[in-house]
Amino acid sequence: MPTIVLLVGAAMASVSMALTFPSLSPLRPKMVMLDRDGVINQDVGSPGVIHKDQFHLTPGAANAIGKLKRSGCLVVIITNQSCVGKGLLGMSDLGSIHDKMEQLLVEGDSCAVIDRIYVCTSVDENDPRKKPNPGMIIEACHDMQVDPANSVFIGDTLTDLQAAKLGRVPRRVLVETGYGFGLMGGVSACVPAKVVEGTYLDTCNGCTLSQHLFGVMPFLYASNLEEAVISIIGDNGVS
């Protein structure tokens, strides 16, 4: 069972690196950070998953995480769960939900084991750990001893991409599942996934992206977690 981290880690040191998207880099990341709702499991809307019976994996999620693990990547979850801070469920309830998540993942792929889960339960938008703030990302990189330059963040919301950028994670991925489709103006992701930046917009046939996305470009836009993982590590020898 992975460690669930709720408190701020000891190191909040800043790091510096170029915020570019090495879309064709042959190097696999050492760590992949995943948002939970809308990425690993189907998003159920506000106030979120508050009972384990509401928790259902997105298609291909278990195999995607299994691929990452077989390729040698660390896999951690970075998730806001303000429903706890609002009193809608307790920490034991959240633990039960995560127990079900782990069970479903390994049932789908025996290698799909999460290394660590970082959770922010705060309702304070200024909490340094709550996305779009990068506190949990900085903790994960410190705890797992991974340079953010060697990591990837996969999420479905603007706050995911903002947190990743502030955390100096150069390879950021938006998935169409969850809120990604709406952020991209109702435009479906290509297969294989493509990088979203200026030239992408030229071929987008007038799509209306959320204006805030311009501040987190470039990022990869993938149809789901499985397609995101294939784009990151390829599809050879780890299926």
What can you see in these coordinates?
The chain starts with a strand and ends in a 6-residue tail after the last helix. Helix 1 packs across helix 3 (91-108) and helix 1 (61-70) runs parallel beside helix 8 (225-233). Helix 1 (61-70) links the parallel strand 2 (31-34) and strand 3. It is built from 8 helices and 8 strands; from the N terminus they run ββαβααβαβαβαβαβα. The radius of gyration is 17 Å and the shape is globular. The model is unreliable at 7-21 (pLDDT under 50). It is of the alpha/beta class and 239 residues long. Strands 1-4-3-2-5-6-8-7 form an 8-stranded mixed β-sheet, with helices on both faces. It has helices at 61-70, 82-85, 91-108, 135-143, 158-166, 180-183, 198-202, 225-233; strands at residues 3-5, 31-34, 74-80, 116-120, 151-155, 171-175, 194-196, 219-222.
Please describe the topology of this protein.
Elements: E1 3-5, E2 31-34, H1 61-70, E3 74-80, H2 82-85, H3 91-108, E4 116-120, H4 135-143, E5 151-155, H5 158-166, E6 171-175, H6 180-183, E7 194-196, H7 198-202, E8 219-222, H8 225-233
Sheet with the most strands: spatial strand order = 1-4-3-2-5-6-8-7
**Beta fraction:** 15-25%
Q: Radius of gyration, rounded?
A: 17 Å
Give start-end ranges of low-pLDDT stretches. Answer: 7-21
Distance between the termini: 24 Å
> How would you state the average pLDDT, rounded?
87
Class inferred from helices and paired strands: alpha/beta
- Continuous helix count: 8
Anisotropy-based shape: globular
Number of strands: 8
For the sheet with most strands, the description reads: 8 strands, mixed
Give me the strand/helix succession: EEHEHHEHEHEHEHEH
Fraction of helical residues = 25-40%
